[in-house]
What we know:
Low-confidence stretches: none
Order of helices and strands: EEEHHEHEHEHHEHEHH
Amino acid sequence: MLKIHSIETMGALDGPGLRIIFFLQGCPLRCLYCHNPDTWQVDKGIFITDEDIVGKALRYKPYFKNNGGVTFSGGEPLLQAKELVDILKTLKSHGLHTAIDTSGYFNVSDAVIIELLQYTDLVILDIKHENAELYKKITGHSIDKYLHFKDILINKANCKIWLKHVVVPGLTDNPQHIKNMEKEVKTFPLERVEKFELLPYHTLGQSKYEALGIDYALSDTPEMQMDDIDEIKKLINLDCLI
Length: 242
């Protein structure tokens, strides 16, 4: 049984093909630019049984065709890693493609994560920052959890990898940082990295902060424009950059 925030059907951005996306409730990170603060609190959301999750996924299987499937996002899905293992195993037994969209933060044993990744076809890993000090500034947490998950992903798993990074004006758009991100991507096994995406910062979630009575730290930060992202991409030499 999983604690769910929401479900999106027929999504096309959270993995290959058309997908059903389960957004899990709860996240320990407090990213300055998070657009879903309503997923933070673990005591919110609703429980949904394994049978219901698998049943919902199977109803959409005809639409997945050869490359669609099921994605677990968040929040932070690895907070419910133990519960996810059996669900992923069942989904794989039905021939469904599985993906986990994560920041790499987990509080279970390495063995649980290793088993979970055995039934995960794709890990979509959000790299907040490659620098420990700035990682903590952005997320409020140490970079250690990310590095630990990264080590397991590289050395104990065989799944495909998508990497992504949010580009925020004045925070993560510095040319030197962008070159350092290129170096960070190259520390992953590039034969398994299918995609590296630079995501433009936006303010679409700011109204949620107001509704929840939470201060929005980047209220004076302008949105990142796609033209600027295109210029930043010119600094990077990676075949997997999109």
